[in-house]
Amino acid sequence: MFLVGFASLIVAMGVTWVVTPVLIRAAERFGAVDRPGGRKTHSSPTPRIGGVAVFAGFVAGMAFAAYSTGLLFDLPQGVYWRGLMFAATGLFLVGLIDDLRGLSFRWKFAAQIVAAVYVWQSGFRIDVISHPLGGDLDLGMFSLPLTVLWIVGITNAVNLIDGLDGLATGIALITTLTVGIIAFDRGLLGVTAASVTLAGALAGFLRFNFNPARIFLGDSGSLFLGFVLAVTSVRGSQKGPTAVAILVPLLVLGLPLMDTGLAVLRRTLRLRTRGMRTDNALRYVARNYQHVFLPDRGHIHHRLLDLGLSHRNAVLVLYGVGTLFALSAFSMVLIKSRWIGLLLVSVLVTAMASFVGLLYFRIRRSGRSEPAPVAEEGQQRAPKDRPLASLR
How many domains does the chain have? Predict the structure, then answer.
């Protein structure tokens, strides 16, 4: 199992390493580039279809693993992983269309829901929640909505942190290695194969994506990465000790989940504040809910830049945070004690809350205002002195 996993990692890394330079030249030739401006941090046009290289490496590595182990063909495991490959491919193509032509968030959101439902039918399900205090809760009819919520949430969380060169790629690499090690410890062949293969593809791509990036992941890469991470974490957390079954996935994906939660809270509060200026705040928020999905420059990585950190140093700081989350998750698997696990989580949550609170406090004291949301291509951006509802 170890030798096959290592070989799959090398195959995926090699394919991505070879494909990426070719992809860079092709993207520059055909104009598939991301141009600077707005909240973007790069200063020159950069190819934005790096997800193609990561996807190619992942497929090559999984094909090697399938050939060596029969992973995609043996029952019942084959049903799971064929479902994952089919759904992940569909979501990758949706992201690629968005990179090349542009799609509204509604279409991307709908595609994520369809892909999540498909893998749920394939067997990737959250059927039982085991809480750290002991005992299991059978979800029954709530299994589908909770599984979809988890997969869609993680997919978008990874997409949201893709804001600096190498950030999403590096965090995903740390996360997927952690999931792979935990799965190997539990003897889960499929999760191990998918994780080390994805890690190999990310390692091969990071050389070209780290600052100064020669190519970006794009939505084709970030949506694909988030989806695979979400699905493998669901499978990898099953059949584990009660103390870790629910906490390990949350810890492994702690950084993107934390940043996404803050983004939703920040945008919702901003929308509510604007709604208070109208006669009916609730109606205003309901009419303009889509602005919660619009990007802004208030993410944790943007805050680090505002404090004066260089692009690279901001990314390295967040690599450290991601590694801390990963080590905490791995420690819980080794310790297998619910009380020590709860203590570890409490200390980590307190430390992260202090880190984020200090970060935002320093920005507020510096007197820097938060920019307004940036509209996606094809959408209007609301002037500060006009109600958003009037632009519908």
Answer: 2
Which tens digits make up the pLDDT trace of 235-262? 755 544 433 445 666 777 777 788 877 7
Same domain, 20 and 90: yes
pTM, 2 dp: 0.78
Detail the DSSP E strand segments found in 66-178: 128-130, 136-138
- Report yes or no on 146 lying in a domain: yes
Q: Can you tell me the distance from the alpha carbon of 365 to that of 376, in angstroms, rounded to the nearest whole number?
A: 30
Range of the domain at 320: 260-377
Beta carbons within 10 angstroms of residue 323's beta carbon: 16
Q: Which among 209, 241, 273 is the end of a domain?
A: 241
Report how far Cα 345 is from the mean position of its chain's Cα atoms: 21
Question: Domain for residue 254, yes or no?
Answer: no
Report whether 2 contacts 190 (CB < 8 A).
no
End-of-domain residue from the set 208, 241, 274 = 241
> Can you list the residues of the chain whose pLDDT is less than 70?
1, 36-43, 70-79, 130-136, 236-249, 289-290, 293-296, 336-342, 359-392
Residue 58 contacts residue 12 (beta carbons within 8 Å): yes
For residues 163 and 165, give the distance between their C-alpha atoms in angstroms, rounded to a whole number: 7
Mean residue pLDDT of the chain comes to 78
Burial level of 75, CB count in 10 A (0-12/13-18/19+)? exposed
Question: Is residue 223 within 8 Å of 95, Cβ to Cβ?
Answer: yes
Domain assignment present for residue 147? The answer is yes
**Quick one: 280 and 210 in the same domain?**
no
Terminus-to-terminus CA distance in the chain, angstroms?
A: 56
Whether residue 391 is contained in a domain is answered as no
Tokens matching residue 195: 């994780």
